[in-house]
Amino acid sequence: MPTAIINSLGTYLPKKILTNFDLEKMVDTTDSWIKERTGIEERRIADDEETTSILGFKAASAALQNGNCSPDKIELIILATTTSDYPMPSSAALIQAMLKATNAGAFDIQAACSGFIYGLTLAKAYIEANIYKKILLVASDKLSSVINYEDRNTCILFGDGAVAALISNEGEGLEIKTSNLGAEGIYSQHLLIPAGGSKKPASEDTVKDKLHSVKMEGKEVFKHAIRRMAKSSLECLEKLNIQVKDINWVIPHQANFRIMETLAKQLEIPFSKVFRTVHKYGNTSAASVGIALSELFESQEVKPKDHLLLTAFGSGFTWGSVILKKTETND
Ligand code: ACO
After folding, report:
1. Residue 38: CB within 6 Å of ligand 1?
2. Peptide bond preceding 297 in cis form (omega within 30 of 0)
3. In 3D, which of 103, 29, 6, 14 has the Cα closest to residue 59?
4. Most ligand 1 atoms within 8 A of CB, residue of 30, 109, 188, 219 to mutate
5. Residues 170/172/176/177 CA torsion (nearest 10 deg)
6. The model scores a pTM over 0.85
């Protein structure tokens, strides 16, 4: 059976920085409250021209360049996003056009903040089944386009960004060893965008009532996020028949410093092994785990045969974990 390997990664973060001090001027909040409760200091915000597909295209171009791969070699583009440019067509198709990836199929998946993990799982399945040999997984979200910047419960948390991973059946990089996915749709009302879909199409009232932005019951999300990421991580370890002590790095969804800290305690893993970018980018939704993975990979801290545990949780609720193993050649 072929193995699925992440050969290269690329990211794109918009240039504009929104700091906690900027938010102090917009809503009733403080830098110290945000830092203490979430660990976030600043986040990136895309400009009007930088749509989800453009952020994704820039990350995809970087991943292809880092992997020395031309776009025509790509057979499939999977985009994980909650903030597609249009309800139709998919933003994956827009990225396909911008890349001129003339031999690729393209579609979007929607698993909110678990999107990168869901995408890795799909890519692994396609490659192991020998259906495709080269896949570009992109995770891109422009959460700023669905945030109400008068709602202090949500506007402090999110930022914009994109990541892409070139995944193939050969070469060096990070082998996708195993994965585990879950969902519990009965909790959909705890974290959602109420209008703009078939249930409540856009109308004057939905706009007036600000129903096109994220509504969240933070405490519920917090509680479920820890429980689900911990359980799913342990199930992944069991599937691969390895122990917590065999994990060299944990990359959890970058939503909140305290969620990561509690998760590390529950997994009995030193917090120093938990890689974090939340302080500088906030929660970039589908892209969050992938952006952190890319920064860790670039830092040269990942050694041959290291095991990396990725775990995420998001609206749905959805969750999932993946274990990666660095291939033996250190290049
Ligand atoms: N600044 C100042 N005060 C605030 C702010 C703010 N930005 N936001 C809320 N508060 C107030 C509340 O109104 C409340 O005041 P009250 O006691 O007078 O009622 C008080 O602070 C405490 O509020 P809590 O909601 O209890 O604060 P908590 O410690 O739970 O932190 C937070 C809130 C940061 C949102 C936390 O619950 C959290 O991180 N939850 C998970 C969020 C998350 O991960 N979301 C993304 C999921 S992934 C996806 O799919 C998008």
Report:
1. yes
2. no
3. 14
4. 219
5. 100
6. yes
Instruction: Return the CA Rg of the chain.
Output: 19
| Residue 178: partners with Cβ closer than 8 Å, 6 or more residues away | 236, 239, 240, 322, 323
From CA 206, how far away is CA 220, in angstroms rounded? 25
How confident is the chain (331 residues) per 10-residue block, as mean pLDDT? 96 98 98 98 98 98 98 98 98 98 98 98 98 98 98 98 98 97 98 97 96 96 97 97 97 97 96 97 98 95 96 98 90 47
**Residue 169 among the catalytic residues:** no
d(CA 114, CA 260): 15
* Tokens representing residue 62 in the block: 């970087």
Is the CB–ligand 1 distance for residue 187 below 6 Å?
Answer: no
In whole angstroms, how far apart are CA 241 and each of 141, 233, 238, 245?
34, 12, 5, 12
Sign of the Cα pseudo-torsion (314, 157, 9, 51, in order): positive
In contact, 10 and 66? CB cutoff 8 Å: yes
Q: In which region does residue 292 sit, left (phi positive, over 0), alpha (psi from -120 to 50) or beta (all else)? A: alpha
- Ligand 1 atom having least distance to the Cα of 316: 50
* Ligand 1 contacts CB of residue 33 (under 6 A): yes
Nearest-CA residue for atom 50 of ligand 1: 314
Residue 57's nearest CA partner among 28, 105, 119, 99 is 99
Is 241 catalytic? The answer is: no
Catalytic residue (one of 69, 113, 155, 236): 113
Q: Which of 19, 23, 34, 153 to mutate to test the pocket of ligand 1 (most atoms within 8 A of CB)?
A: 153
From ligand 1's centre to the CA of 236, what distance in Å? 30
Annotate 271-298 with DSSP letters as a single string: GGGB---HHHH-B-GGGHHHHHHHHHHH
Q: Long-range contacts of range 19-26, CB-CB < 8 Å, 24 or more positions apart?
A: 20/156, 23/152, 23/155, 23/156, 26/149, 26/150, 26/155
Give the total residue count for the chain. 331
